[in-house]
Write a structure and sequence with these properties.
single chain; mainly alpha; 10 helices
Length: 229
């Protein structure tokens, strides 16, 4: 039996563990991103530290953590490995996302899986993902909360993956993608539990609000500015 079914998920986990936001913050500003803002290593917190111009690059790098393993596994499976592409693609996507959330290089303290999950589901369930992305954009445009947009988009994804006929299923993932979609949505929501608490208390960071996260805590601080008369 080919070793690919074992090696591919392992390689996916290692790739998912690469902390791109952390590394860029270290290289560009010499800071540990885990001690700044929300302490998260993802693109949103990295943008707070480095500036928004770095957000697209870091998001795409984290996006690739889910996209590349799912795509490669789907093509590498089959006759070459005597292993079904459906479960292998999902397994590799799951391994990559777990690597992002629990990176071996950062003592298993990682990100919240939004970008990595987006990359995985654009391969495994593109239409549900696109619907969820539309919800994310609408919610963010209306309320300016990245966390709220991510939570609601996860709920939509976890639901729409079960709608018959909605997903053309190019990777042949079928029921595996649906189960994974629900599990991934629950993971994203669970990882945002602190954000949910801040949303309920009215202390969540809103993009463009003139408020910023304290460098050492998850609490927001108001940025004083010149008073207008």
């Amino acid at each position: 039996m080919s070793p690919y079914p074992i090696l591919l998920p392992l390689a996916a986990y290692v790739y998912g563990s690469i902390p791109f936001g952390f590394l860029m913050a270290r290289a560009i500003k010499g800071v540990d991103i885990r001690s700044r803002g929300s302490g998260n290593i993802g693109a949103t917190n990295a943008a707070r530290v480095l500036g928004f111009r770095f957000f697209p690059l870091i998001f795409l790098l984290d996006f690739s953590k889910g996209f590349a393993p799912a795509l490669i596994a789907g093509h590498a499976a089959g006759e070459a490995t005597h292993f079904s592409p459906a479960p292998l693609a999902v397994l590799c996507a799951l391994a990559a996302i777990l690597g992002h959330v629990f990176p071996v290089f950062l003592r298993f303290r990682g990100g919240k899986a939004v970008a990595a999950g987006t990359g995985a589901f654009i391969v495994l369930a593109p239409w549900p993902l696109l619907i969820a992305a539309g919800v994310w954009c609408a919610v963010f445009a209306a309320f300016r909360y990245v966390s709220l947009a991510s939570i609601l988009a996860a709920l939509v994804l976890g639901t729409t993956v079960w709608i018959p006929g909605l997903n053309p299923d190019p990777a042949g993932a079928g029921i595996f993608a649906s189960l994974f979609g629900t599990a991934a949505a629950l993971m994203v929501i669970t990882l945002h539990r602190a954000n949910i608490g801040r949303l309920l208390s009215g202390n969540e960071h809103k993009i463009g609000s003139g408020r910023k996260l304290s460098p050492d805590t998850d609490r927001e601080e108001h940025i004083p500015g010149p008073e207008k008369h």
